[in-house]
Structures are given as structure tokens and as C-alpha cells.
Amino acid sequence: MKLNRIYILSVLLIVCFCSCKHNTKETDSKEIEALPYFNAADFTPEWNTPEHKIPDFSFTNQNGEEVNNKTFEGKIYVADFFFTSCPGICPKLTKNMGHIQETYKNNHDIMLLSHTVMPWRDSVPLLKQYAKKYNVDSNKWHLVTGSKDALYTIARTGYFADEDFTKTQDESNFIHTENFVLVDKQGYIRGVYNGTLEIDVERLKRHIKILRKET
Prior knowledge:
215 residues; alpha/beta; Glutaredoxin; five-stranded mixed sheet; 39% helix; SCO family protein; copper
């Protein structure tokens, strides 16, 4: 009798464990249906509390044209920071931005914005040359330059793209980040991704799909 009780208890425990494991898999595989907002440099997700907007800006793109907030008005866009002579992560970032460009080449509501962090070197002709090298579609993807102060300020206080500045508050530090920042149609930050990792780029694309469903 005692053995039967132990056997029954063991069976019940196994069934319970399998059921819990199955439910966990279902929960983990469930796709998210909405994205949070990011209002500060610590990237703590906030739900239904948009506060921080990308501030006003005006830069010059690879065609010598002015690019500002109105250029992206009513658009979803991905922003990053690079420089044309970068031998490290920038080619990977640019390549992955190129993949995003290809994915949404026929969608006029998705745009890309790459800021140089070496404006004293990256002139409009150099940006033009870089754009040609990486098959940049100037109707969708803007490579921009401008004053160092303006570019570094928007990187740090607009996109929260400089982790070192967050830690040290040293304005003289050179900005170099692998972040892709997802901005919605209202100018709010909705996601941050490692632009060097294909798995994160795919996550970015899934999140763009979610944003496209918002009004």
C-alpha cells in the first residue's frame, strides 16, 4: 500500500513538471504586442508614459541637403553613429543598416539616419563617396554631418548613444557606439539594439513590424 502511494505521487510529480515546462515554453515563445518607451540613458522601459522626444536638429546629408526633424515626421526610423574611416565596427554597422534598407526598400514609412562622429573629417564629398560604396539609397537613408557640438549633444542627450558619457560625463570623449536606436513616428525612442549582431538586427525588424501597427 505504501509503495502504491509513492508510485502515484511520483507519477503526479512527473505530470506536473511536464505541464509546467510546457506552459513555460508557450510563455517564452509568445510574441510581444507592444513596445515600451525609453525616456532616460539607463534605458529603463516605460509603458504608456512617453516623455523623452528626439530634440530638434538640423544636419547636412551626403547630397549637401538639409536634414531635420521634418524629414522624419510621421516616419519610423533607425539611427546610428559612425565615421567613414572607422576600421572597426562601422563597416559591420553600415552593412547591417544596408540589410534594413533592403528589407524596407519599398516602404516609404521606414527611414535610416547615420550620424558621423568625426565631422571635422567627414565632409559632404566623403559621405557621398561612402554612400556610393555601400549602395545607400538617398531617398531612404541619410548620412549626416554638422557641427561637433550639435552631433555629440544629440548623440548623448537625444539618443542616449554614448555609454561612456553616461558614466564619466566627460564631454571631450570620442563617441563610438554600436547602438541602433529605433524611433517611432512621434519621435519617441522605442528600442535599442546592438547593430553588430544579426540576431539583434532581426529583433529590430520584428519591433518595426509592431510599430507599423500603431496609429
